[in-house]
């Protein structure tokens, strides 16, 4: 399977190293009760002082870690092997922006906490993705102007809110507006991708899964009281789905299947 992809072997090796580290961290958590390594590898957070090595505190991070391992493989393997298609300037720019957006999530394991500037950086990169998606999707994107406006409002607003929060300026209701704008933009882009043969159906499915994951987390938290304190843990799995969608959206644009068929001799 690795040979099917341009970077399949390096991606498999990196993913394998992560899985080994995940297994070791899980064993340490179960045998010594120390959750620090496990939570750092999977949830990218420090362990609270009152956190015990109960089954949920070990099982959920392991499951989230499996999701991130899959995200590593999906992101790092690159497009399918074969001669890449000739892409126009807009498509090339979009691929770079999508990879940058997916790569920005790599800051998670490198930082002890998610600082305000990282939120702003992520929002700005996604703001660029919004602008570059528009010309590439073309006629496939319904309500194109509204979609672009929603995306610009969403991610530009997130960056502004974060900066104002640092300055202790209150923005009541702004977060909800930005969240709804993200929803509108994402739904319209996913619909356009589904109609565009350049993107594989699986890529769209990952995007839909990333979109509905927060709703699923909220429902799980309501239905199962034992998981109420682990909603943030489950949200991390939704973040992994978003990374997969961004990376696969970039991969698919360079899929060799889009090469024009050779002329008959």
From TrEMBL:
Highest taxon above the source species: Bacteria
Transmembrane segments: 12-33, 53-73, 94-111, 117-137, 149-167, 173-192, 204-227
This protein's UniProt keywords: Membrane, Transmembrane, Transmembrane helix
Protein name listed in UniProt: Uncharacterized protein
